[in-house]
Design goal:
Layout lengths: L1 H15 L5 E13 L19 E11 L3 E10 L3 E3 L3 E14 L2 E3 L2 E23 L4 E21 L4 E12 L9 E13 L5
Antiparallel strand pairs: 1-2, 1-10, 2-3, 3-5, 4-5, 5-7, 6-7, 7-8, 8-9, 9-10
């Protein structure tokens, strides 16, 4: 969760520098499926990455005519799963993106993103490893990834929106799982700072 804390702190600092521009924050829930859901022939081979509830926190800042900007997101599996039936693990996805948010009508905006990030998979142990800073009970396997997403911001008030969304991940060298191509889909509840939006 250290990545989440760093991302949230950066978002607060970045968004606080420009109170007049449009800034959005959202919290969401989703699920994940991979493009290859085939179970492995051997239990110790790569596993499919499917199912589970994922929570997410995202933020964005728009510049040019409130349509183009930058954003970031972190999404993590709410509960641990079992890898090969015995090893507890939790995937975490984080990314930074360019954004395009076209206005479709007074209460609806599109949201399209493309960027880069990483998949970090935490494999939990029944012992702790310590260094001079902290102790952890997990090891992490991290892989570079590309990220693409699309969503619809449906404004229920001038500032509050509901966003059905889909995310496509291309994870490089995703050796722990049967596929490096994953789709996460769900819904987020968000708030737009910087004036009324209908």
């Amino acid at each position: 969760m250290k990545s989440f804390v760093v991302l949230a702190a950066c978002a607060v600092i970045f968004f606080g520098t420009s109170a007049m521009a449009q800034t959005d924050v959202a919290f969401g829930a989703s699920t994940l499926t991979s493009t290859d859901t085939t179970a492995p022939a051997f239990i110790f081979g790569p596993q499919p990455l499917n199912g589970g509830t994922y929570l997410s926190f995202s933020g964005g800042h728009l510049f040019a005519k409130d349509q183009f900007g930058v954003g970031g997101e972190i999404s993590w599996r709410a509960s641990q799963s079992l890898y090969a039936g015995y090893q507890p693990y939790r995937p975490i996805f984080w990314d930074f993106n360019g954004m395009w948010v076209p206005k479709l009508n007074d209460r609806v905006k599109g949201e399209f993103q493309a960027g880069i990030g990483a998949e970090s998979v935490r494999f939990y142990n029944n012992f702790y490893t310590c260094n001079f800073v902290s102790c952890t009970n997990y090891t992490t396997s991290t892989h570079f990834m590309g990220h693409f997403s699309a969503g619809l911001r449906l404004y229920v008030t001038p500032n509050v929106f509901i966003r059905p969304e889909g995310h496509f991940y291309l994870v490089n060298n995703n050796v722990e799982f049967t596929s490096g191509k994953m789709i996460r889909y769900g819904v987020s509840l968000g708030y737009t700072f910087g004036g009324s939006h209908y």
